[in-house]
């Protein structure tokens, strides 16, 4: 079994991460999942949630993924998302402001709830310091 796997995280706008990782943890629509090198092939729809990428060095890269897909096969893991942001690039003040605006909104509740969830993930990652 290999000690690492090749990981790519890509949004509709850009490639956010490409490198070797020892583990990846994400939340699919069915629940939490951890992928280690040698995992069985997997194709999962991702929820609005953080993705944690553990590097072989022990460092951690965190990414806010707002829906998407995780595909793992043969030592290669790819996350494809419409929207994804590195924790280090999240503007916490902007997310907090947007969250306050949404909490007072009374229009489309489903869209509001989804957007609130995105802001909460952004704020969670911004607070984690990475």
Describe the structure.
Helix content is 24%, strand content 48%. It has helices at 92-103, 109-127, and strands at 5-11, 15-21, 23-28, 31-35, 42-54, 60-73, 76-81, 83-86. Strands 1, 2, 3, 4, 5, 6, 7 and 8 form an eight-stranded mixed β-sheet that branches. Strand 1 (5-11) and strand 2 (15-21) form a beta hairpin. Helix 1 runs antiparallel to helix 2 (109-127). The longest helix is centred in the C-terminal third of the chain and has 19 residues, at 109-127. The two termini are 29 Å apart.
Question: How is this structure best summarized?
Answer:
By secondary structure, the protein is α+β, with helices and mostly antiparallel strands.
Distinctive features:
single chain; 130 residues; alpha+beta; eight-stranded mixed β-sheet; 8 strands
């Amino acid at each position: 079994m290999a000690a690492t796997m090749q990981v790519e995280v890509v949004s509709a706008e850009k490639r956010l991460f490409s490198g070797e990782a020892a583990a990846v943890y994400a939340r699919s629509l069915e629940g939490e999942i951890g992928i280690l090198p040698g995992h069985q092939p997997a194709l999962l729809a991702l929820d609005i949630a953080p993705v944690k990428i553990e590097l072989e060095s022990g460092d951690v890269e965190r990414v806010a993924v707002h829906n998407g897909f995780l595909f793992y096969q043969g030592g290669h893991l790819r996350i494809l998302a419409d929207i994804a942001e590195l924790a280090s690039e999240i503007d916490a003040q902007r997310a907090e402001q947007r969250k306050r605006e949404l909490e007072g909104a009374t229009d489309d509740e489903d869209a509001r709830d989804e957007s609130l969830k995105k802001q909460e993930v952004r704020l969670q990652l911004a607070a984690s310091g990475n």
